[in-house]
Amino acid sequence: MSCQNLNVVTKNFLIRLAIYILYSILGALVFMSIENNAIEEELKNLEKTRIQARNSLAEMQNSTHFFNMTVDQMVAFARRVVQVENELSATPTKWTYDQGYRLTFEIMTTIGYGSTPPKTQTGRLLCVFYTLVGIPIFLYFMKSIGEVLNRGMTSLVRHLEKKVLKRNEDKNVELKVLIGFIIALILDVSLEIIVVAQDKKRDFTVIDAFYCVIITATTVGFGDLTLENELTMIISLSLLSTVLDGVLCYMEKTIEEQINETKGCQCFGLNKNENRNTTEDAEAYGADNKAVTVEDLSRDEKM
Predict the structure, then answer these.
(1) Distance between CA 28 and CA 102 in Å, rounded?
(2) Contact 241, 182 (CB under 8 A)
(3) Which is nearest to 93 in space by CA: 51, 138, 56, 39?
(4) Which end of the chain has fewer beta carbons closer than 10 Å to its terminal beta carbon, N or C?
(5) What's the pLDDT tens digit per position in 227-246?
């Protein structure tokens, strides 16, 4: 790999990484601002409702002596008490930056756990347009990660071929790189499963951890069991997408080679078996001609 190609790959990776980070930060701040403004209005309205509920409860208690209440009045009073308690306890919390970033991450990766969805009309409308722009940005970012990983794995395979196995020719490099990525993906998933299964805060079984990691890595994201570390999710997504891309490229290359080989034989009006038979006939004909030539030379010497 030339230095120029390496510089291009590195430059593309850094540019797309910067765009991804800036877009994520901007989205997190905007969503947090929109949702918090709505929550502040909701808190003001809730405070008014609480005051009205307290006044209504006091009026009900003063209008009728507590011990002289009928059954219906007692039931109405009890229901009102429960309603007031629910209104007093229902206090919405403001969004933090972590919640805003979590939302942008789930949108751009298409995991969609649904842990922090926007609840306002403005937030939901913005979420639609943010998704349409954010997913292509993340895909380009993933492509750059795949290019960097592919370059690194290719260099590693060629280094092992020359230094360890003492082979100067690069044969089936694409297949060996693909096998290397498959091994790396298996190790990454296994490590994640072990870490998640041993997390005492979650109390996951091994099956739960395996289910959670695979469902997240494939971006299905049901949301019943979730991962918290975004970096590990990005690594898994990168390796999985690189493996899938490598499998497709290897299959396309194999099919293309078969098609080219078939076309090459058809250009001479021969199939593979006919070509082999023709070659064998030509070799036999050459051997016969050689034998005849030797006999002729011997006869000429005797004469």
Answers:
(1) 8
(2) no
(3) 39
(4) C
(5) 888 888 888 888 888 888 77
Q: 59, 76 in Cβ contact below 8 A?
A: no
Instruction: Tokens for 231, please give them.
Output: 């970096």
- Encoded tokens for 205: 């079984």
Tokens 């006939």 map to which residue?
281
d(CA 286, CA 157): 44
Three-class SS state of 73? helix
186 phi and psi angles, rounded to 5 deg: -65, -45
DSSP state at residue 96: P
Backbone angles phi, psi at 93, to 5 degrees: -100, 150
DSSP string, 206-233: HHHHHHHHHHHHTT---SSS----HHHH
Please name which of 185, 216, 229 lies closest in space to residue 109, comparing C-alpha atoms: 216
For 257-294, what is each residue's pLDDT tens digit? Answer: 888 888 766 655 545 455 555 455 545 545 444 444 54
Look up residue 92 and give its DSSP letter: P
Q: Tell me, rounded to whole angstroms, the distance of Cα 112 from its chain centroid.
A: 12
271 phi and psi angles, rounded to 5 deg: -95, -175
What CA–CA distance (Å, rounded) separates 138 from 217? 15
Residue 108 burial (C-beta neighbours within 10 Å; 0-12, 13-18, 19+): buried
